[in-house]
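seq:
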Amino acid sequence: MKAVQDKMEASENDLLLFVAGPTKVVHQSLASLRLHLGGKLGLIRPDLYAFLWVLDFPLLEYDEKEGRFVAVHHPFTAPKDEDLPNLKEHPERVKAKAYDLVLNGSEIGGGSIRNHLERFSLSSLKKLGMGEEEAKERFGFLLEALEYGTPPHGGIAFGSTGFAMILTHSESIRDVIAFPKTQKAILLDDGGTSKVDPKQLEELSIRIKV
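struct:
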């Protein structure tokens, strides 16, 4: 216990909280706990607007259920140039040219620089468990476009509802959406979602498999 106290520079009446498990679960759990305690103890100033940029996202993360790597942003996010040598043997070490804008702990905007070289795009898709044939079947239109020489390009998208939620000090994003859904994805204003008439399905040549 003394070793832990020394390491954490803890003094009398301090509270140390530990979470054990996979890295992603630990980070999310401690982040939620931090925000909960910050609100409960009045440590979060409602009049303060703190912006920050989040950089150096990992390009890929391993999905235990799928048993393969998945894209953190999307399959066409460009890897950082200096990390390219790791893409083949150590994909978990590759960082992405991605960025998020955060306000008071909530993401209000995000984007990335895109892969503009066809060979890097194919390499990334292979790391996601896609063979070349499947990659061309699903993303052939984009891969073909890249063959003609696409310049470096990127973008960012902002979420106005998240921004409005913070500015109005709302607890839920549903408070600032004109036609919000409940937690069960039901629209109270118009009764959605409702059952689809069999005639409508027939017109669209859609069959529902239960």
